[in-house]
Amino acid sequence: MLPQSGMQGHAEAKEIDRIIQRMLDKDPITKDNALRWLTFATIVEASCKAIKKQAEDRVG
Q1: I need a surface site. Which of 23, 30, 41, 60 has the fewest CB within 10 A?
Q2: How many CA atoms lie within 13 A of 3 on its CB side?
Q3: Is pTM, for the whole model, over 0.90?
């Protein structure tokens, strides 16, 4: 079982996943909007990498 802080992070990650899925349900990726979705995904990926790096630095 995850520690309380890990459980909170897991719940937050699942909520972000649900939000993105709702966005995709409302605006599926098509040839016309693929560049916009690619830009979105690139920004989210960079943000996640920065968060991961900070967390790894704190953990040691």
Answers
A1: 60
A2: 1
A3: no
